[in-house]
Structure formats: structure tokens, C-alpha cells
Amino acid sequence: MAFSLISGVFIPDVSPILKEYRPKKDGFILSLSGDDYGRFFHDALKLLPEPIFFFIETPSDNDGRRTYYLDNCTRPVAQAILKRYGGILYNDGVIRWGFGSHKTEEEVYMQDYQTVSGYAKSRELKNLPKNLGYKENPSAKLTWDIISAENPGECVNVESDGETYEEMVSNLTEVGMYAEE
Asked: For the chain, what are the domain ranges?
């Protein structure tokens, strides 16, 4: 199946992107097809030892980023975040987000232009891309590699069920999410 973009990411030609990943000493990096978000993060949560933390990086007023954390989540709580806010997390092109384990410091981190990094110690987490049908290739192209003046990229905010990432952050702040100082 061809690589697909999420609603909040625009790149005219993504044909050079294949379902491949670059192995790294401490994990992997790949461009995640929009069709694979749900399965990737669902499977990643099964592999991260509890307690789990959720984090989101949002644009800030000074052209930087503001990072928020929700610590000490159980697996069901982390899964509930995906269920409740998957429409935003799986489609917004502006936010960066992910989950990690307090116990092992392993992490999956969705970055700009659908590029995800996995910081993994366990073989199971390191093999997550392969288990989803991505092929190992040390030269795998990432979306970052194909963006140019001739093939410009753009990331935009999206709404899901009338909410944006701002409402998501506000709602999760009410249950303990906090901004990094």
C-alpha cells in the first residue's frame, strides 16, 4: 500500500516514501503512513512498561514549542487518550506528541511531517516497524528528505469533533497534565 498523508500534512509528491524504517542504535526512525497511526500507537502502548507518560508539544507564542506531560498513566489511561483524542493526534500536522515509559525511558515520538522516532531498549519495541510491515533500510527516505522548494511541505491544525489540540490540552490539564517549566 502507498504512503498516505494525514489531514494536517501537505506534500505534493510523496511517491519516494516507502514503508521502510531506518534502524538506529537506540531504536528507529520512519515516516509513518497515515493508515498506520492507529495500529502503530496501539501496539507501541502494549510494549511500553508502566507507568507510562503522555506528552505533547504545541506551538507557543514566541515561535517555539511548549511541552506538556501527563505522568504515571496506566496502560488503560494511555489507551483512553488515544481513543478520546485520536482524531486530533492522528491528523493534526502542527503538534508533536508521544508516549514513553517511566520505568525504561523508552519512547515513541511523533514529530513533524509524520516522522516518528522510537527510542527503544527492548527487541520487541525495536521491531515494532517490522511487525507493521515496514522494511528495514538504513537509507530509508523520510518525509523530511523529500521536502524542497519544488516539493514544499506544509503542516496545519485540524479539528476533530469540534475540538483542536488546544481543547485537548485544556481537558487533560484538568486531570493532571502540566506544562514543562
From this structure: 9-179
